[in-house]
Amino acid sequence: VQLQASGGGLVQPGGSLRLSCSASGSYFRFNIMGWYRQAPGNQRELVATLTSGLTTNYADSVKGRFTVSRDDAKNTIDLQMNSLKPEDTAVYYCTLCVAGNCWWGQGTQVTVSS
Predict the structure, then answer these.
(1) What Cα–Cα distance (Å) separates residue 24 from each residue in 1, 2, 102?
(2) Rounded CA gap, 38 and 47, in Å?
(3) How many CA atoms lie within 13 A of 87 on its CB side?
(4) What are the tens digits of pLDDT across the range 7-55?
(5) End-to-end distance of the chain based on CA atoms, in angstroms?
(6) What is the 3-state secondary structure (H, E, C) of 70-105?
(7) Cβ atoms within 10 A of the Cβ of 78, count?
(8) Alpha-carbon distance 15 to 24, whole Å?
C-alpha cells in the first residue's frame, strides 16, 4: 500500500486549506484512514480518523474547524481545515490502518503564519 498526500502550504491565520491523500495497492475494505500531524519538537499526534463505516474521531483541538471525509471509489481521504491557527503548523501525515497494521504517507507541510 502506498499513500500520497498533497495540498499543504502557507496560509494566514483564519484561512483554510484542504489536504488530500490517495491510496494505491490492495487492502482490506474494512479499514481506518486518517490524518496525524507532527510539529517540530513534538510527538506525532492524532488529527482525525474516519473508519470505512464512517465513524469519525477528532482531536479536541480541531473539533469544529476540521472535517475529514473519504471517497472509497477513488481511494482517497481528505481533510478540510478551516479557521487555521498558528498552532496548527505541522507536517501532516495520512495513514491507512487494517487490523492494527498501518501505512503512512510522506507528509505534507502546513504552515499557518501572517
Answers:
(1) 6, 5, 14
(2) 10
(3) 4
(4) 999 999 999 999 999 998 878 787 899 999 999 999 999 999 999 999 9
(5) 37
(6) EECCCCEEEEEECCCCHHHCEEEEEEEEECCEEEEC
(7) 19
(8) 30
